[in-house]
Amino acid sequence: MPFSVPPPLPPADPAPAPMREIPVPRHGLLRGALLIVWAAASFGACYVARMLDVVVGGWHVGYWMAAQGILIVFMLVVVVYAVAANRAERRDTTPDAVPRA
């Protein structure tokens, strides 16, 4: 079976479309605050867990707090940031003008 020559590629676009300017996020303070909450929850749980000597189901309460509570805090941080970023993006973008007929 003979090999066939592939078809030629289409010509390259001589002038690519200009890139949109990416807006600078205005919620840097929120990002910093959420990082502080995440760090305090992550590292603070290690120190607070040592004080909880109550045993439930064969495990210390501190283990359950660190294993489950910190995941919940992290998920809340992600949800709060996602909602704030969506609101900021919606506020900053303007719909393209559609010509009326």
Give an overview in words.
By secondary structure, this protein is mainly alpha-helical. It has 2 helices and 2 strands; from the N terminus they run H-E-E-H. The longest helix is centred in the C-terminal third of the chain and has 32 residues.
- Tell me, what's the shape? elongated
Question: How is the biggest beta sheet arranged?
Answer: 2 strands, antiparallel
Sheet-strand content, in percent, reads under 5%
State the total count of DSSP E strands. 2
The radius of gyration over CA amounts to 26 Å
What is the element string, with H for helices and E for strands? Answer: HEEH
Average residue-wise pLDDT: 76
Distance between the terminal alpha carbons, to the nearest Å? 57 Å
| Helical content class | 40-55%
How do the strands and helices of this protein lay out in sequence?
Layout: H1 28-49, E1 55-56, E2 59-60, H2 61-92
Antiparallel strand pairs: 1-2
Helix pairs in contact: 1-2
Provide key terms for this protein:
single chain, 101 residues, mainly alpha, 2 strands, 53% helix
Could you give a short description of this structure?
With 101 residues, the chain is mainly α.
